[in-house]
UniProtKB/TrEMBL annotation:
InterPro entries according to UniProt: His_Pase_superF_clade-1 (IPR013078), His_PPase_superfam (IPR029033), PG/BPGM_mutase_AS (IPR001345), PGM_Phosphatase (IPR050275)
SMART domains: PGAM
Taxonomy of the source species: Bacteria, Bacillati, Bacillota, Bacilli, Lactobacillales
Name of the protein this chain belongs to: Histidine phosphatase family protein
Matches recorded under CDD domains: HP_PGM_like
Length: 196
């Protein structure tokens, strides 16, 4: 079985300020850099090496990956965060209530120039499937974003399973998936900070 390690980027300035950060970007904080380096140490200590590495095209993701490993990597637009339209950079207090059926923000951001949850999920599934279908991709690291990662999780797990297995996706959390016969399987969530 192939393995995918899907990681959320480290803490950023916008995370610290509780600002909506999707298509917009902000730099990693000192804490974000330290946490990402800690994940790199964790991988080394557990003998986890990667055939290939990928990140979103956003700086906070590629900077996180460079703190984790020095190996070459490819940046892909398909791994970018959910686009929140005109809400970008605004206070997180402006986020809407979750759609009770979809357990996400649903289509809310479409009317404001952003994406729907389904659009984000579709591009994440497509991008990660294309990655894992390539030859010599037995163990892969991909660095993405909170909303994008959770929408990918919801393509595999039911809402109840997602809530139980991934209750909160902290910065620098790693989600481990198996990939076999063209299908992903959720294996575990690795929260390095909680393990130390």
């Amino acid at each position: 079985m192939q393995e995918l390690y899907l990681m959320r980027h480290g803490q950023t300035m916008f995370n610290q300020l509780h600002r909506i950060q999707g298509a917009s970007d902000s730099p990693l904080t000192a804490q974000g850099i330290a946490d990402a380096k800690e994940v790199g140490v964790y991988f080394q200590q557990h003998g986890i090496t990667f055939d290939h590495a990928y990140s979103s095209t956003q700086e906070r993701a590629s900077d996180t990956l460079e703190c984790v490993t020095s190996q070459p990597y490819q940046r892909l637009k398909g791994l970018k965060e959910w686009n929140f339209g005109v809400f970008e950079g605004q206070s997180e207090q402006l986020n809407p209530q979750m759609d009770p059926k979809r357990h996400t923000y649903g289509d809310f951001y479409l009317q404001f120039g952003g994406e729907s949850d389904v659009q984000v999920q579709d591009r994440m599934v497509q991008t990660l499937t294309q990655i894992m279908e390539q030859p010599d991709h037995q163990r892969v690291l991909a660095v993405s974003h909170g909303g994008a990662c959770m929408n990918f999780v919801r393509s595999i797990l039911t809402p109840a399973e997602a809530k139980q297995k991934v209750p909160h996706l902290k910065n620098c959390c790693v989600l481990k998936f198996g990939y076999e016969q063209h299908a992903f399987q959720f294996l575990e969530m690795i929260n390095v900070k909680d393990e130390n």
